[in-house]
Amino acid sequence: MTLAERVLASIDLTNLNDGCTADEIDRLCAEAVTPFGHVAAVCVWPAFVAQSVHLLGSSPVRVATVVNFPHGGVDIDATVGETRQAITDGADEIDVVIPYRALIAGNSVAVVEMVDAVKNAAGTAHVKAILETGELPDQPTVAIAAELAIAAGADFVKTSTGKTRVSATPEAAHTMLEVVRAAPRPVGLKPSGGIRTLEQAAVYVGLADQVMGPGWATPATFRLGASSLLADVLARLAVQ
To answer: What global pTM score does this model have?
Structure first.
């Protein structure tokens, strides 16, 4: 499998734009299945979960949505309510922003309680914990955030919302992969935000191969959250 094929299969094709419309979701879901294969998932606002599920039908493309997004507050009840509604609407995956400001202030319990509550509400759906690594002060804090999220039941750790000045970075992804490697159970990684070209995606695939071993980075364990990466990948596949 070529790099472009690996990347295509791992994309969470995303539209979390302010003012996103139903027509844009129609286009997003249509783009998720390509002549070269399909992306792993679409990632949409909660209001568009049911529409996405309907459009993708029996397609293997999964439907992900976001909760406690993008600010990463500490209101567990509200976030659990968002999660339950998303599951009712058919979501396969829940991407939850951890209370990263609380963590920075020294309240690690808030992270554990939030992720644990969402995991319980999500049932069999996969939960990706968004650490918002660009807002964390240093790599030791990134490692702590990943460890807390995994201890609370997260199936993936994800770098970013894409709504802050700094999104995914190779440094943060490497730190998170080291935590994933040491985890007592299988956990995935999702770099997200600012990944627009195949070359940028290749950096993260290479890190996963380096830390976790060749072949680990499959859609079951590795995603790339992106809105514009697909176009570049398809352009490369078209000339292979």
So the answer is: 0.98
Beta bridge partners of 93: 64, 126
Catalytic residue list contains 158: yes
89, 92, 95, 232: the catalytic one is 95
For the question of residue 119 being annotated catalytic, the response is no
* CA gap 138, 238 in Å, rounded: 40
Strands 126-130 and 156-158: parallel
Q: DSSP 3-state assignment of 63? A: strand
92: annotated active-site residue = no
Coil, strand or helix: which one is 221? Answer: coil
Q: What is the pLDDT of residues 73-82, one digit of tens each?
A: 999 999 999 9
Which two structure tokens, joined as six digits, stand for 203? 């950096």
Structure tokens at 18: 């302010």
DSSP at 46: G
Q: Which member of 12, 92, 128, 158 is catalytic?
A: 158
What is the C-alpha to C-alpha distance for residues 235 and 130, in angstroms, rounded to an integer? Answer: 30
pLDDT in tens, 21-70: 999 999 999 999 999 999 999 999 999 999 999 999 989 999 999 999 99
